[in-house]
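User: Thanks for the earlier help. One more: Universal stress protein. Can you show the sequence and predicted structure together?

Assistant: Of course, both are below.
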Amino acid sequence: MYKKILVPLDGSDRSTKALSHTVELALKLGSQITLMHVVPSLPPYVNTAVDRLGQAQQSIIDELMRNGKEMLQQYASSISDKGIEVKTFTVMGQPADEIIEKAIKENYDLIVIGSRGLGEIKGYLMGSVSNRVSRHAVCPVLIIR
């Protein structure tokens, strides 16, 4: 049924709950899981000719990518004794778009994602990643509160 499960993680309590739920599902169903972290894209500088700003932005991106990879490794290590096949993937972009694209390209059977981390009003106005993923994904999406 759900042989390949994608789990987007951002380090929040809700994403950690999503991982716990996924581990239980994977154990019961014999699923392989992929832990995914999306580093949100930084806005481009207006004047890219200013080398220092470009270097500073690249330094920030490198640090965010490194932190994301370390976070996923910690999550993977925390479940390594469960006998579940676990992969990790870190990318930079718009979170909902990257999650949807990954699920489509690699034929995931299920996405398990934590519910919104934004406040209710901000989330209502802007929309949340989990909301966008659930509306546009081609596979089932399980949203964990």
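User: Great, one quick takeaway?

Assistant: The mean pLDDT is 88.
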